[in-house]
Amino acid sequence: MEETMNFTFDGNISREVLENYLSRSVTAAGLYESKTLEDDLRAIREMGVKFLGRASGIWYMTMDDEEHFWLSKELADKVHAQDPEVILQSCVFEWITRRMETVEIPDYVFEAFGMEPEPRCFRLDDALFTDESSGYTSRRDDPAKDGGIPDLSRQEARLWFYYRATRYIDCGYEALHMGQVHLYTANDKGMAKTAELFGMIRAYARIHGRRHKILLDAHTHGVNIRGKLLFDYHAMPFTRMPLLEVPGEELVLVREGYSEGGENPNGWSAKTMPYLMEYDNWGGLVVDDRENIPREELAWRDWWGYDQIAWFANQPEASRNHFLEYTYKWTEINNPNAYFELPFRRMIHNAEVSMKRGDNGETDAQDFYQINTKSAECPMGFAQEETAKRLWAAGHMLREKAANPEMLIRYGAEEVYDEETGMKLPEKIVVYGSFQSHVGAVKNDSNSELTRMYYIGDNTYTLSVVIPFAGTYDYSVATYGTLSATYQADGYPRSGSSNKAYFTTQKDNTVVRFRYQFISNKVTVEMFE
Q: What are the residue boundaries of the Amylopullulanase X25 domain, all occurrences included (predicted)?
């Protein structure tokens, strides 16, 4: 399938090419430090990876900065020697530290801001928020960690962001993840100075970039300024709900993920921009005493007491493969503009996983998730390569057959009337029943917004969901979200919590599409595996 996909761009990138890259994206956090790089390169080649998210970037400055950039460039050179089409992404995060004061500001950075060059280093205190009561500063003795969130309304912070962005561009990186943009722009009214800075970074890439382009994203649903978008695409982590009805520590993803539309920096427009969704990390094991907390309480502590990737890494191999497939299908049907950025390499901090090594068979602890097939070359791999290849080989069949509308926040049917009878169509139609807990809603909630159906025209409402576990579930359709009139396959109205219809999924991770037609009150259920 990959042979038919276009990955060509120079200067600007078309929507087709951008989405091709996003559809072959992985999160490869800190790949520049990998101790199994040769096997990582093999996996990248054999999987057909085209976008390496978070391949470089720093949070704390624990390494000499020049060494960091040297290793970052070495990685880019090795990846591009193998496949020159691959985009590597680095990160300019929402965190700066005292150690930035060891970095001398190059003349070209001053000159880009219209300033007279001077021999000095960056100044932390001139880049931070001045109001320490905001909680945006974190004072520590270690200069590699002492710091806080930069204030991009201050020129010193913008100097730092520009410096780091341009250094990564010089290293061969063609994408930058800009972290939590809504934090460091708190004092930048209308993000005017941020937009100017991003324009400067883009101008630098037009001259110095490998293909004269830098792709910018951040954790945001989008920033639209007078019709023009700040980012090339958007990125966000998943939202979850615990699935208490199933033994163990299972969870399901919750339908969400609006992505702002407008004019893309590349010149084309869309009502909804493409975006990536990923398993995020923020601390690994975030609940120290998991074994002492009741199951019902632990279920609501982040992801069962872990951050997202740590929870995933701590599942058995079969469960990891199951959830990877579930997430891929969930993303495919919940927004035709969203792409699942598969986990390739990601830190799990103190949520270490014990496993037998692939080289000597001894038990060891791994503090990084790696998708690699376990081998002597990658002895602590988690073995999801084959699952990833199978998912990518399936393409976008489910998206084409059963996806929910791209505008998830608009359900439609406002001021719509049946042409024959003149009856006004209901704006709110909810499908409810025992299946709801398996899609992140409260079971038997006829007023749930999470299982509200979308109006697609011709008196028809639909909703697609992924049922993670095979089984038999009941359901009914409630107009206006009330129980005064509910419908099943026979089209007769019923009142209250009376009998429901049933559907059965034969396999795990089955996509179920509900369809309801007003006036005829016909209800149908379709299934896609």
A: 429-517
